[in-house]
Amino acid sequence: MPYRTKDIVIVGGGSAGWMTAATIVSLFPDKNITLIESPSIPTVGVGESTLGQFRKWMATIGLQEEEFITECDASYKMSIKFTNFYSKDSGSFHYPFGEVSFDQNNQFPINEWFAKKYLYPDTPVQDYVRHAYDQAPLIEHCRFDDNSNGDFGTFNPRRDVAYHFDATKFANWLREKYSKPRGVNHIRLSVSKVNVNDDGIESLVLEDGTEIKSDLYIDCTGFESLLLGQSLKEPFTSYSDILPNNRAWATKIKYKDRDKELEPFTECTAIDNGWVWNIPCWSRIGTGYVYSDEFISKEDALDEFKEYLKTKKGITSPDKLKYKDIEMRIGIHERTWVKNVVAIGLSAGFIEPLESNGLFTVHEFLLKLCKSLKYEYVNRLHTDLYNRNVRGMFDFLASFISTHYALGVRTDTKYWNKLSSMHYDEEKLFPEAFMLPQLGSVEQDPNLGWNPGSSGLHCICTGMNYIPTDKISHDFWCFVYDGMGEALPSYIQSILQNKNQQYEYRTQRALSSPTLNQYLKQKYYGNN
Ligand code: FAD
Fold first, then answer.
1. Is the minimum distance from the CB of 517 to ligand 1 under 6 angstroms?
2. What is the Å distance from ligand 1's center to 14 Cα?
3. Cα dihedral 23→28→34→35 (10° resolution)
4. What pLDDT, in 10s, does the model give residues 337-383?
5. Which residue out of 38, 169, 327 has the highest number of ligand 1 atoms within 8 Å of its CB and is therefore the one to mutate?
6. Cα gap 208→221, rounded to integer Å
7. Measured between alpha carbons, how far is 192 from 176 in angstroms, rounded to an integer?
8. Is 166 in the pocket of ligand 1 (CB under 6 A)?
9. Interatomic CA distance for residues 449 and 361, integer angstroms
10. How far is CA 59 from CA 28, 47, 222, 305, 359, in A?
């Protein structure tokens, strides 16, 4: 039956709760919004690396970059760097944000890098990003440049840059500076009872006995999923068959030399039973070890993580750091909008931290939800469409993330043996990975909300040595040779030579640009 959306109660005050409050109050100032947050149940306290679409969400609700950066201890993120995912000592590859840049005059029916790899099979896979992204030298040398004179080609610092930030400061900022001043009512009490009826949730009872009723309830209670999971008992679909990581240890470390360590990328380093994230915020670095407890106990995982911090990060006394033990629920509820309850954030589902997809799903699901909230009454059509879109996006992301493991050939531990033999959806992956601009224009996928051809899939696939020249049929290459014959190598050579010269020039330019630390100091932080 249709129901109203005038009164909205959000339960949970982590990033998801306050992003929800800020978004709805900004787009629908006439709605009555209350956020209930437990003073005793902590937030997850991680989730500090975003994707590029975060900027779009900020712009949609009018958040100012300068204020966000200085209030939330933020820094710039231009890429995700993956280390040793393909094989034990395979080294690193990047997935930068932004548009790929191939030779505009190329008459060849496939982009020139794939031809390069075909003609010169020894070309390392890392070369792909250097070739395709004009900002690669900035990333490689931890520099930043506004690209005001176009030296970095297609790089657009207003579009191709995401953020690292402090999650606790972010939620506080959205609460104090944004949501409460616009009228969001904030209650700091736990919900101790949820009354359910045929229409969904009838009321919430707080720990002081107050009963709260609302038209719509938004569940932002994290992995607890108090409203959708525990109260409405919506079934949960696990992704453990393709993504077995289910625990993490997290900590924070100080800078020793910010000029060198403030990297403009999140680094994900594969180790024996999972991978370690490194997220440089402005005043400290967040790091953590994601692993599967099917292969290692949490105590041994902590020891392994401390050893990593000691040997790879130069932390002399890792025992002195504080560590947070996090259990993750991997998967998604079958539906995330059921009757008068919508779950946003970890309460809806979580894939795993790779690719910073948690906050991405929060703002993308929110923007989808807001398409329905503009109506005074919503009905099954709204919920069904929302659920289908959300589920499509989530399933795609889960299958994308599974490729980071399944395409690898690591067999050095039981963990990697299992992960590198896991299933991935080749039928789905292959066409999407290689829908590059020069293979024809790609329509934006209405379910995903972005163009898969310019997403990171091709970076991950090439980085993981999944090369289309191995996949595209022999007939295709015969056709190309028939058309161009001996002329092919020299044609490609001239494009590559030009590209190499550009890369060398940009490397020199990058080295004369400020480090990210110098840039942020000058622009935002002064001498802090
Ligand atoms: P939480 O932060 O857990 O908040 C839950 C809230 O619900 C709290 O305020 C709590 O007090 C409240 N609550 C619970 N029960 C009650 C109750 N009974 N009454 C009242 N209030 C209640 N995402 C990224 O985008 N990038 C990353 O790099 C990234 N890394 C991650 C690493 C790890 C290990 C994990 C687990 C997640 C990561 N994520 C990441 C995901 C990201 O952390 C979350 O998407 C984001 O923090 C949102 O969390 P949340 O608000 O849903 O949950």
1. no
2. 5
3. 0
4. 999 999 999 999 999 999 999 999 999 999 999 999 999 999 999 99
5. 38
6. 19
7. 25
8. no
9. 11
10. 16, 20, 25, 38, 16
